[in-house]
Amino acid sequence: xxxxxxxxxxxxxAIVLVGAIIGLVVVIQSxxxxxxxxxxxxxxxxxxxxxxxxxxKVEFGLPxxxxxxxxxxxxxxxxxxxxxxxxxxxxxxxxxxxxxxADNDEALLVWGIILGxxxxxxxxxxLVAWGSVRSRRD
Length: 138
Prior knowledge:
Elements: H1 2-35, E1 38-50, E2 53-61, E3 67-73, E4 84-92, E5 95-101, H2 104-137
Antiparallel strand pairs: 1-2, 1-4, 2-3, 4-5
């Protein structure tokens, strides 16, 4: 019975490690992708609340001189109507495919740190779990 429990523990530790590493890769990839987008100044038109999430409607100009309005998730400090913000956007075929507030980097950094700590903890647990198997066999 002890072997089943320790085998389950090692399996769970490995799953947590793999999940944390995949999550960390996704966060880093998203952060790098957003940093490559063009950026411009925009003006907050409206602050929208839906349950616990808050977003802002921002109007910003594109390189061709047209104005674009987008509803963007607010992950940083509270933004009020009339406030100037930096918007990052990705153009595909001359149209905005994705956009985000530039302070979204802070949220990605926090998630990166959290997932990094989880990955390190899971790596340590894996080393202990698999190390105990080796010592029992000797």
